[in-house]
Amino acid sequence: MLGGIFGITMIAFFTQNAFAAASGAANLPNGLLFGGGFAALGQLGLEVFAVAVVMSVVFVLSYTTISLIGIATHGITTDYNKEGIIP
Predict the structure, then answer these.
(1) pTM score, two decimals?
(2) How far is the C-alpha of 57 from the C-alpha of 63, rounded, in Å?
(3) Measured between alpha carbons, how far is 10 from 2 in angstroms, rounded to an integer?
(4) How far apart are CA 36 and CA 29, in angstroms?
(5) How far apart are CA 55 and CA 76, in angstroms?
(6) Each residue's pLDDT tens digit, 8-34
(7) How many angstroms separate the CA atoms of 32 and 8, rounded?
(8) Interatomic CA distance for residues 44 and 9, integer angstroms
(9) What is d(CA 36, CA 23) in angstroms, rounded to the nearest whole number?
(10) CB under 8 Å to 69, separation ≥6 — which residues?
(11) Confidence band (pLDDT; 50, 70, 90) for 86?
């Protein structure tokens, strides 16, 4: 996950418009290290926002799934006598 976040955010630093256009993303500005200026800062902001949104959605879906599994299985218990596992 950390590698993906790093890779996404580095686009705003290292993009070169000629290579971006050849790969089908002609609207990407040059990166900050190649004179992209405010357009590259805007791109960095979009990428950080996208990472935050994806992380939030994944957290909410994971939490909901784990909660539903806990409700369906009545949670994890350590009272073996109550569960009838140990007579």
Answers:
(1) 0.73
(2) 10
(3) 12
(4) 6
(5) 27
(6) 999 889 988 888 888 787 788 888 888
(7) 14
(8) 6
(9) 18
(10) none
(11) low
**Tens digit of pLDDT for each residue in 39-83?**
889 999 999 999 999 999 999 999 999 999 988 887 776 676 776
**Domains in the chain: boundaries:** 2-83
> If you search the block for the tokens 């790093």, which residue do you land on?
6
The secondary element (H helix, E strand) that includes residue 68 is helix 37-72
First to last CA, the chain: 45
| pLDDT at residue 84, rounded to an integer | 67
What are the backbone angles phi and psi of residue 8, rounded to the nearest 5°?
-65, -45
Q: How many helices (H) and strands (E) does the chain have?
A: 4, 0
For residue 82, which phi and psi values (nearest 5 degrees)?
-65, -35
